[in-house]
Amino acid sequence: MERSARQYFVLEDALLLDNYERAHEKFVDALEDLDLLPMSSRQKQALNNLSKQELMVFDNIMQHPAAATSAEEVVSHFGDLGAQAQDILDENNRQIDRESAILAETAERTQQIMLWQTLTLIPVALLVGLIITFLVAQPIRHMDAAIRKLGEGDYTEPISIDGPGDLRNLGERLDWLRAQLNELEQQKQRFLRNVSHELKTPLTAIREGSELLSDEVGGALTPQQREIAGILRESSLRLQKMIENLLSYTAVQFHTPQLKLETIALPKLAEEILADYSLSIANKQIDIQRDFFPTEIEGDREKIHSIIDNLISNAVKYTSQSSPIRISITQQSGHAL
């Protein structure tokens, strides 16, 4: 505005006056925009004084040359206007600095409050975590104990889990499983008792008959017949032993079996088992090829006997007529094979 006014006073050009008037309008718009901002009463007063003085200058310039005031005196007022505008700008900057300081102080206080809240919440969170862990860990331990009992075959004690809803529901399912397993166990026991009883009745007759044959109650026996009667007697005794083991199966099924260790000569044991199948071997004309290494092991005779007996029984059963069976007992790295 000052530049346009000075140029107008020198050149008396109406275009320069128009430039000054447009600059004045922009200045008025800027004052109106500033007036809308939140300001202190001191800043409002400064803006009003600036607006009045600028308007007075504007009127003097627009009345030139009719106005009595000289051009230089009119233009000199722009210096005062610039000083007032700078004062307003400085005051605004100071206010911004104050607001920034207040904001920084508020942020620092908020940070401290959040820090103290965090420090306060940490033990609370730990306490809540411990409580939740306790509430969940106890039912889980009870559930683990119940599952162990199920694994050991103890189905008598009902399962009841206290805790959150999901764990209670799981406890109910475990108790349902316990009841089902208990029912299956009772059914198995009844089945084993019935089967064992049904097997023992005819087995007793077979054993008594073999004893009578061996005692030649029905007449003298040939050597071959005596051998057959001996096989029947030994087989009936073994079958009776198996039935007794079947009857005691439930008592030991969930316990580690106790092995009766003794020194066993494998070749001798194999020969004894082959003797039990001598009639079948002779009937099928099977050639037994023995490759026995003198070997002794520590083991349970009954279980080793069952293993070798099953192997020889299957071999004799599935070997075709007049075919060989090769039985090898060797020792390798300290173990019998």
Give the SSE map.
Layout (H helix, E strand, L loop, with lengths): L1 H10 L2 H22 L5 H23 L7 H81 L13 H50 L8 H25 L1 H4 L8 E5 H11 L1 H6 L3 E6 L3 E5 H18 L5 E6 L1 E2 L2 E2 L1
Parallel strand pairs: 2-4
Antiparallel strand pairs: 1-3, 5-6
Task: Write a brief caption for the model.
Helix content is about 75%, strand content about 10%. The protein has helices at about 1-10, 15-35, 40-65, 70-150, 165-215, 225-245, 250, 265-275, 280-285, 300-320; strands at about 260-265, 285-290, 295-300, 325-330, 330, 335.
Task: Describe this structure as you would to a colleague.
This protein is mainly alpha-helical and 337 residues long. It is 74% helix and 8% strand. It is built from ten helices and six strands, in the order H-H-H-H-H-H-H-E-H-H-E-E-H-E-E-E. It has helices at 2-11, 14-35, 41-63, 71-151, 165-214, 223-247, 249-252, 266-276, 278-283, 301-318, and strands at 261-265, 287-292, 296-300, 324-329, 331-332, 335-336. The strands form three sheets. The protein has a two-stranded antiparallel sheet. A two-stranded parallel ribbon has the order 2-4. It has a two-stranded antiparallel ribbon with strand order 5-6. A hairpin with a 2-residue loop joins strand 5 and strand 6 (335-336). Helix 1 packs antiparallel against helix 2 (14-35), helix 2 (14-35) runs antiparallel to helix 3 and helix 4 (71-151) runs parallel beside helix 5 (165-214). The protein is rod-shaped and about 170 Å long. The mean pLDDT is 80.
Strand content: 5-15%
Mean pLDDT: 80
Total E-strand runs: 6
Low-confidence stretches: none
Order of strands in the sheet with the most strands? 1-3
| Helix coverage percent | over 70%
Termini, distance in Å? 117 Å
What overall form do the CA principal axes indicate?
Answer: rod-shaped
Radius of gyration over alpha carbons?
57 Å
By DSSP (H or I, 4+ residues per run), the number of helices equals 10
**Main β sheet profile:** 2 strands, antiparallel
Q: How would you classify the helix and strand content by structural class?
A: mainly alpha
H/E topology pattern: HHHHHHHEHHEEHEEE
